[in-house]
Amino acid sequence: MAGIVRKIIQTSRAPAAIGSYSQAVCVGQTLYISGQIGLHPTTGVMVEGGVVPETQQVMTNMGAILEAAGASFDNVVKATVMLEDINDFAAVNTEYAKNFSGNFPARALVQVAALPRGAKVEIEAIAIVGPITEES
């Protein structure tokens, strides 16, 4: 009987982990992407300009991780968005939506007391690696 494969996903095109975690872990066909904040992958510095550029960088980082796993935003089935200020919802939602071409994944969005490195937004996701067929 074969066991389930657990694979660590790592790419230099997304920020290195700033703690004891992996950028993503793939178990079978399920990809668990750690929460991403607006860190630039080469400098490790938070992008400036507020929640919009941070969200853009978060999605860029997440896209790089998805690509390293052989997936894209179309493979994302669930996301969790954490905001420092719930009043940033509309701005974050606009940037988030730009990354999906079809049906949106399920999502939770919460306001939190604080995020690492003073971030205004953090997003984590679960994706299915492999072909996905849409059914309505």
Automatic annotation (TrEMBL):
Gene3D superfamilies: RutC-like. It comes from the Eukaryota. GO terms for molecular function: deaminase activity. GO terms for cellular component: cytosol; mitochondrion. Belongs to the RutC family. PANTHER family: 2-IMINOBUTANOATE/2-IMINOPROPANOATE DEAMINASE RIDA (PTHR11803), 2-IMINOBUTANOATE_2-IMINOPROPANOATE DEAMINASE (PTHR11803:SF39). This is Uncharacterized protein. It comes from Mizuhopecten yessoensis.
